[in-house]
Amino acid sequence: MRYSAFSIFKQALAGNLGWKPAWREPQPKPHYDVIIVGGGGHGLATAYYLAKEFGVRNIAVVEKGYLGSGNVGRNTTIVRSNYMLPGNEPFYEFSLKLWEGLEQELNYNVMLSQRGIISLYHNDSQRDHYTRRGNAMMMEGVAAEQLDRDTLKKMLPFLNFDHARFPIIGGLLQKRAGTARHDAVAWGFARGADRLGVDLIQNCEVTGIRRESGVVTGVETTKGFIGCNKLALAAAGNTSRVGEMAGLKLPIESHVLQAFVTEGLKPCIDHVITYGAGHFYISQSDKGGLVFGAEIDGYSSYAQRGNLATAEHVMEEGVTMIPGLSRVRVLRAWGGVMDMSMDGSPIIDRTPIDNLYLNCGWCYGGFKATPASGFCFAYLIAKGESHHVARALRLDRFERGFPIDEAGVGTQPNLH
Question: Major location, coarse class (predicted)?
């Protein structure tokens, strides 16, 4: 059923008894044209765009848990395109443009709030870096604005501008950036894909990938064997495990990234703010809770929980940037399993196995990339070639010596 103000009014008068399930609960068919492993934001978006834009309807999305139980429901909801390198900036700007029309596209409220993101800097070299980044953005047609200390003091008076080691001297603003509701994005794409005939198969773990004569013929699952013509992997932090089933050793590592939510407060933080002296980032949700996070835990893990040492480090960074946070109670925390690539940038490409496709290496940037990742992955699966904004995101770029090192820290996943 289509959602609208009229349908809400009508259902309210009828006691809200007429709402239909957002998607079906089908049993797997023996064979599909495309199977997508991973029922998170990227897998669901891929299925939706494959069905809507490219006319492929015989699709199954298989998810070992419930839809949205992975990283798409375990992040800090930031949406932005303030990147610098040619391999990243056009891709993330394409994603942001898709975000801006997503609610109308899906007939679903993903709660996109373009409140702007401010990236703080603390010394002359950081200022020069953000100047360069802002110029790179504008060369791609993306608006960016550099803010001086006095302007920031008027906008964000709660920041610690005079810290002895990390005084705040300015920031880079992207006004079109902001936040969206993480689970609503997964539900919106799931509902849209289901309406187009995609089978969303929950609680169906892939236990093996069957190959014959070097070609994938299907997947072994806890619900039996399911055949396919093409297999697409969008399993985030579990990509290494699933890839090994097909004999692939991939250039990614799995790390835990923690996120935190405080008690509800009156509106106090109007933007997304990132800390230049660390990797701390914070925004305020519609319910009033402050949502924040920082670095990964720094060691490989598949656990959806973090360690106390990193939690303490995150709190220290937050209080250094905003001293008033010391009086706020943290209500809950969680961990997402990041598929960290060697250069900190994603991979959307074919594998050496002809009918096996790969979507991974999203590091911290997976949520904001959800629409573009789905669209470009669907384009690749349907057409057999990369979309023009994703041509640099090749699997073999490490072998060829063409990394996309946005952070400039080399080929160590734990440093990105």
Answer: cytoplasm
Q: Does the structure show a pLDDT above 90 at 374?
A: yes
| In a domain? residue 29 | no
The pLDDT tens digits for 161-178 are 999 999 999 999 999 999
Alpha-carbon Rg for the chain in angstroms = 21
Q: How far is it, in rounded angstroms, from Cα 91 to Cα 392?
A: 10
Helix segments in 156-226, DSSP class H: 182-195
**H or E element, residue 220:** strand 215-221
Inside any domain, residue 4: no
Res. 413: pLDDT tops 90: no
Strands 59-62 and 31-37: parallel
pLDDT at 113 over 80: yes
**Separation between Cα atoms, residue 219 and residue 229, nearest integer Å:** 11
- Residue 159 to residue 252: CA distance in whole angstroms: 36
Q: Is the pLDDT of residue 409 over 90?
A: no
pTM above 0.85, yes or no: yes
Name the domain count of the chain.
Answer: 1
Whether 360 is in a domain gets the answer no
Between the alpha carbon of residue 1 and those of residues 11, 15, 191, 290, the distances in Å are: 12, 17, 10, 34
Q: Hunting for tokens 């309210």 — which residue is that?
A: 12
On the question of pLDDT at 277 being above 90, the answer is yes
> Exposure of 5 by Cβ count < 10 A (0-12 exposed, 13-18 middle, 19+ buried)?
exposed
CATH number at residue 149: 3.30.9.10
Tell me the DSSP string of 109-162.
----B---EEEEE-SHHHHHHHHHHHHHHHHTT---EEEEHHHHHHH-TTS-TT
Structural domain contains residue 414: no
pLDDT > 90: what percent of the chain?
93
Domain that holds residue 171: 113-178+253-339
